[in-house]
Design goal:
The complex is a heterodimer of chains A (423) and B (496). Chain A is built from 11 helices and 16 strands. With 423 residues, chain A is α/β, with parallel strands linked by helices. Classes of the chains: A alpha/beta (423), B alpha/beta (496).
Chain lengths: 423, 496
């Protein structure tokens, strides 16, 4: 047992303030503790008679919750939360084992916080180039980063979505080689619309500012790569970020335009605001072609419809393999990033048959758009590859405080992907 | 239209306008003409509904016994209610009756009737002023207008016994010049008047002794005007900030009063785009800047003994591949950061930097900004009153009085911390919109954050800058609301 220093504030299992913290799993207990500590004079010693694992998990929960939304663009305000104590010490019988586990968990929290920061960044400060630079920054952790010009690599749909902006699109490929060389990688694909005005199918002004967060999928993949590399996971993981800004410039994609995709299928773009599926279609097809994925999972703030279907507490899960779906559902529960499976239905195809191309990008049929969008993506995925699609439009940001974070960007997907990578 | 003054006489050609007081009381010239016509004017009046009430008119064509083409009776109302504004209305109503009549020469008889609230010379000067204001037409783009639809009046003669009338008219004539400049630039379509061409219009005031300085985007960037520049970034037209300085006071170094105008030369709304219906009206979203430019011309034209600064922020708000996005965070010249929730709340972003720049650079005694700022003010006050917001009661009172005197009425609306709180942002020092409730007030609260301790007032002229119907002294269209008001404020409180 580590002895508390004189003058430390000691929180023990027997103090009334900790009654609600004193029961249950250690990780949520840490999060609850984090919400109670602001304003507490430090250092704080937590003596809850924890095992090494529980001590590390409690500390992890605490760190996850201890996140301050992006403050760099404003002056401190009177109603800002009070500061956390400068030091929190969690007592356990085996501090060495606890520290070792915590060292593996801390990078995951860093990945979550990174994803949250990126989602909160305004569109003028985080455009395609700046998001790509964030990917590039992971090189310092041993991640191999390649930035591809979409037009030069046949990624025509990604290029088309970005063509209305003065800030060019980019495909970022992040490789973490922690496993055996021959081992096929887990491939994570993220939708990275740094701002989505809707293009010429312009969105209504009300709440459009939230569209700076339309790169939540890419942020989750980037955060996961940060976590995986940070803890030096013994696994091969590739992150693919489809990055663009969707703007109604003079060179913008027009409704009715037909594009031959990377995969070869032609798409009639009837709605330039159904752009996420376009950039993902190319990114998924490219990933199947170049990365030999063992498993392919994409995350995207894809449809408003999924929010109407599932609300803000579950992300929509679509998968072409039941085993993969089951695995993701289980991991989602364990990581408090819950998913709900929705159907991939061939009947959706009737919704987006086009008169001039193989497919339209948008159905407006009787089937909810989230189902249509998922089915649309499936056409661009090699059927031999186990693939899942997460529609995180409802979960990427929270309008109230959560167990593991304040309201605002959640970093949804980072912990799930990190757990999926394993190693 | 040339305006001159002459001794009273009975004209022998053209159109003659005479006043009639309430209850069919003829002014002396009206009586004299009626005598010539053998009582024909009285008979015509009795046969009509005309009783001499204010704003009533009656045209009698070629009355027998006279040599004139027409006599227009114009109601003056009650003698003891005839003030400068009533005199202007008289002149304006009179001119409207004859402007396209076919007559080239018009006489307006101004008789000294007992009991008027205004001296005879001022009466005549204001009649001429009202007539001149009403003569304005923005018709340069009609290429096929028929001759009979065009104005025929070339010469207006005001008949008045008081020799001082001409002198009294001179400053009013200068004010009318300012009003016309404002109406011109506000009426011009956005393909003609855009930031650089409007800056060039400002530059022309140099001929009157106004010092004009224009800052382009490079200079504004150096000054840190991220708030103003963000608005213009979606347009191919370069944003401009123009400073016009009139140093007419004896003490050239005395602190000036400053007028600041919103000059969004066209406002599509940007990425938060406006609906197509009615968007063409947004060519006059530079009405505040237009008023400031016109006021500077008026003040310089009448050589006002005062130090006055006019500052206009000129931008075009367009959606494009490089446009500002909702959610962007910009840093204003003041150092305060702004989260741009709605790119269509852009006027305040322009004014924020213009106000701060004015305050820092010129240390003015007071600042008054004018802006077609919010649709909400039209809901609140309609087209009659402009909204007045101020951090200084005395300035607010002075403005209200000046507005009343020149017929550009203001109505004060409240400000306060509770409204200010609506601007709280999670990510920046403030948001640029405060929600639906009290939209004009939260806009004013936003501006207040950029004026420091300077006495300041904000006039929201979105409801008054453009009129959909004719008034006595203004045909429908651009009103130039604010020009006469600012001139009057200077005359009342800021002159040597």
């Amino acid at each position: 047992m580590v002895a508390a220093k004189a003058g430390s504030r000691v929180l023990t299992a027997h103090q009334p303030v900790l009654v609600e913290v004193a029961k249950g799993d250690p990780r949520p207990r840490g999060a609850v503790l984090a919400a109670l500590l602001p304003g507490c004079p430090g250092p704080v010693v937590v003596d809850l008679e924890l095992s090494a694992d529980d001590a590390a998990q409690l500390a992890y929960g605490l760190v996850l919750r201890d996140y301050r939304p992006l403050g760099k663009y404003r002056r401190p305000a009177d109603d800002d939360p009070l500061p956390m104590p400068d030091r929190v010490m969690v007592l356990t019988d085996d501090p060495v084992a606890a520290q070792a586990l915590f060292d593996r968990l801390l990078p995951v929290a860093a990945g979550v916080h990174l994803a949250r920061d990126l989602v909160a960044e305004p569109g003028n400060h985080l455009g395609p180039a700046e998001l790509a630079a964030q990917a590039r920054a992971l090189e310092s952790l041993g991640v191999g980063v390649e930035l591809l010009d979409p037009a030069g690599h046949g990624l025509t749909l990604l290029a088309a979505v970005g063509q209305g902006s003065t800030r060019p699109p980019v495909l970022a490929v992040l490789r973490w080689q922690g496993g055996a060389a021959a081992e096929k990688p887990l491939v994570l694909v993220g939708k990275g619309l740094t701002f989505d005005s809707g293009g010429l199918s312009l969105k209504p002004a009300e709440h459009m500012e939230e569209m700076k967060g339309d790169m939540g999928g890419a942020a989750a993949v980037l955060g996961a790569m940060r976590a995986i590399a940070g803890r030096k996971a013994k696994a091969n993981v590739v992150g693919v970020l489809a990055i663009a800004e969707n703007m109604p410039g003079g060179g913008a994609l027009r409704p009715g335009d037909v594009i031959r995709s990377y995969q070869g299928l032609t798409v009639e773009v009837v709605d330039t605001d159904a752009e996420g599926r376009l950039v993902l279609a190319d990114a998924l097809a490219w990933a199947c072609d170049h990365l030999r994925p063992a498993v392919l999972v994409d995350a995207a703030t894809l449809t408003g419809a999924v929010v109407r279907v599932l609300g803000r507490h579950h992300a929509g899960l679509y998968a072409n393999r039941d085993t993969l779906a089951a695995r993701l559902l289980k991991l989602g529960r364990a990581q408090a990033e819950p998913l709900w499976r929705l159907p991939l239905s061939a009947r959706c195809d009737d919704d987006f048959r086009s008169d001039v191309a193989d497919w339209k990008n948008c159905g407006w049929g009787p089937v909810p758009d989230n189902d249509d969008a998922a089915r649309f993506l499936q056409h661009f995925v090699d059927p031999k590859v186990p693939w899942a699609h997460l529609d995180i439009a409802g979960t990427s940001e929270a309008d109230e405080h959560q167990l593991y974070g304040p309201k605002g960007a959640t970093g949804f997907g980072v912990r799930l992907f990190d757990a999926l990578a394993g190693g | 239209m040339k305006i001159s003054f002459a001794k009273p006489h009975l004209p022998t050609d053209g159109a003659v306008i005479v006043g009639v007081l309430d209850n069919k009381v003829f002014t002396p010239t009206a009586s004299a003409l009626d005598d010539l016509a053998g009582g024909g004017l009285k008979r015509a009046m009795d046969a009509s509904k005309f009783t001499g009430k204010k704003d009533q008119t009656l045209t009698v064509l070629a009355p027998a016994g006279t040599k004139v083409n027409r006599v227009v009776l114009v109601g003056l109302g009650k003698a003891d209610e005839v003030d400068a504004l009533a005199a202007q209305a008289f002149g304006g109503n009179a001119l409207a009756q004859v402007l396209t009549s076919g007559d080239a020469s018009v006489f307006i008889a101004v008789d000294a009737v007992p009991g008027l609230k205004i001296a005879e010379a001022d009466f005549a000067a204001n009649v001429a002023f009202g007539a001149r204001l009403r003569s304005y037409r923005f018709d340069k783009y009609f290429t096929k207008e028929k001759k009979e639809d065009k104005p025929s009046v070339k010469k207006l003669t005001v008949l008045c016994a008081a020799p001082a009338a001409k002198t009294a008219f001179a400053p009013l004539d200068a004010i009318a010049d300012g009003v016309f400049l404002t109406r011109d630039v506000v009426s011009e379509p956005a393909n003609v008047i855009y930031p650089e061409s409007l800056a060039a219009e400002c530059q022309k005031l140099a001929a009157l002794g106004v010092e004009v300085e224009t800052l382009g985007e490079k200079q504004m960037k150096k000054l840190g005007m991220g708030s103003l520049l963000g608005v213009g970034q979606g347009s191919d037209r370069e944003s401009q900030l123009v400073v016009m300085r009139w140093t007419g006071a004896k003490d050239k170094s005395a602190a000036p009063i400053a007028f600041i105008g919103k000059g969004v030369c066209f406002d599509t709304g940007g990425i938060s785009i406006k609906p197509a219906a009615g968007m063409e009206d947004m060519k006059w979203d530079m009405g505040g800047a237009g008023a400031v430019i016109g006021a500077m011309k008026a003040l310089a034209g009448r050589k006002a003994p005062a130090n006055v600064i006019g500052v206009v922020g000129l931008v075009e708000n367009m959606p494009s591949g490089n446009a500002q996005r909702p959610g962007d965070v910009v840093t204003s010249m003041s150092g305060q950061t702004i989260e741009v929730i709605n790119t269509d709340a852009e006027g305040r972003l322009v004014l924020a930097d213009a106000l701060w720049y004015t305050k820092e650079t010129y240390k003015p005694k007071a600042m008054v900004d004018l802006a077609t700022l919010t649709g909400a003010i039209i809901i609140s006050l309609g087209g009659e009153y402009a909204g007045l917001f101020a951090n200084d009661d005395k300035l607010a009172d002075h403005l209200t009085e000046a507005g009343k005197a020149v017929g550009e009425p203001l109505w004060r609306l409240p400000m306060g911390d509770a409204y200010d709180k609506q601007l709280k942002s999670d990510i920046a020092d403030m948001k640029n919109v405060g929600g639906r409730e009290g939209g004009s007030i939260t806009a004013a609260q936003f501006l207040k954050r950029f004026v420091g301790d300077v006495a300041w007032a904000h006039l929201d002229i979105a409801g008054t800058a453009w009129s959909k119907k004719d008034t006595a002294t203004c045909a429908k269209g651009a009103t130039a609301f604010g020009v006469r008001l600012l001139d009057q404020l200077v005359a009342d409180h800021y002159q040597d």
